């Protein structure tokens, strides 16, 4: 059975979610107050309607209650974003994802019970900052305020050593959860301690931010 989604606000962020979900074959109800935005999504989404999501009556008429997951991607109008989220919550929507504009907005959304609050500009900024620090840091994903998972190219200091030699857990407090071997393209999840790291290998490491930061400084960042 197809899953049903609604995307409220068809700016760059909401529009991109709507496009991607539709391409993946999902049922998507696209909502925006602006006619031209809605017209843009008429051929893409299953249904595209002009509506103000702050209006509870309109939301009910659109049958929003039957939708599994609603994405609120109203950007600049923080009040509209909060009111819409509150209304969706009161209507009993199972899963609500909301884009936050700033930290205060995020706090309020968490308080009123949004299931997932995303902050795409801030998160992408952080990820890019990490990859700018070193060509060896390929990606950085936040798991919580103080824990992350990073994808790093093996630094020169790691080459030819195994996980016992490097003793990353004891020395830095973080864990190597997978190694992707550059030569074979094979991914080894939960690698053996005896596995030797070769040039071109990629390590997936999980841990506290402060520990990952030490690990990156000492073992990943080569003098470029
Ligand atoms: P992005 O950063 O994703 O590009 P944007 O800058 O386009 O977003 P906004 O223009 O603030 O963000 O809002 C996103 C969309 O939400 C706009 O197309 C806007 O018309 C729509 N929108 C704003 N308020 C409402 C509302 N109450 N109901 C439905 N749609 C709304």
Automatic annotation (TrEMBL):
GO BP annotations, alphabetical order: potassium ion transport
UniProt domain RCK N-terminal: residue ranges: 2-118
Annotated ranges, domain RCK C-terminal: 135-221
InterPro entries, alphabetized: NAD(P)-bd_dom_sf (IPR036291), RCK_C (IPR006037), RCK_C_sf (IPR036721), RCK_N (IPR003148), Trk_Ktr_HKT_K-transport (IPR050721)
Domain of life of the source: Bacteria
Any Pfam family hit: TrkA_N
GO molecular function: monoatomic cation transmembrane transporter activity
Matches recorded under PANTHER family: KTR SYSTEM POTASSIUM UPTAKE PROTEIN C, POTASSIUM CHANNEL PROTEIN 2-RELATED-RELATED
Name the record gives this protein: Ktr system potassium uptake protein C
Gene coding for it: ktrC
């Amino acid at each position: 059975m197809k899953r049903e989604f609604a995307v409220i606000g068809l700016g760059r962020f909401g529009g991109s979610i709507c496009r991607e979900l539709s391409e993946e074959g999902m049922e998507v109800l696209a909502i925006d107050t602006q006619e031209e935005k809605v017209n843009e999504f008429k051929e893409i989404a299953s249904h595209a309607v002009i509506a103000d999501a702050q209006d509870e009556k309109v939301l009910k008429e659109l049958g929003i209650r039957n939708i599994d997951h609603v994405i609120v991607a109203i950007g600049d109008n923080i009040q509209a974003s909060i009111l819409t989220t509150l209304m969706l919550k009161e209507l009993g929507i199972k899963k609500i994802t909301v884009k936050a504009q700033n930290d205060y907005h995020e706090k309020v959304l968490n308080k009123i019970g949004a299931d997932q609050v995303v902050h795409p500009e801030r998160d992408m900024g952080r990820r890019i900052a990490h990859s700018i620090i070193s060509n060896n840091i390929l990606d950085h994903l936040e798991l919580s305020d103080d824990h992350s998972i990073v994808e790093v190219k093996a630094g020169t200091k790691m080459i030819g050593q195994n996980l016992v030699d490097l003793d990353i857990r004891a020395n830095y407090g973080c864990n190597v959860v997978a190694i992707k071997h550059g030569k074979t393209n094979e991914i080894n999840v939960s690698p053996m301690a005896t596995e030797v790291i070769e040039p071109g290998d990629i390590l997936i490491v999980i841990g506290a931010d402060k520990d990952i930061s030490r690990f990156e400084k000492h073992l990943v960042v080569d003098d470029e």
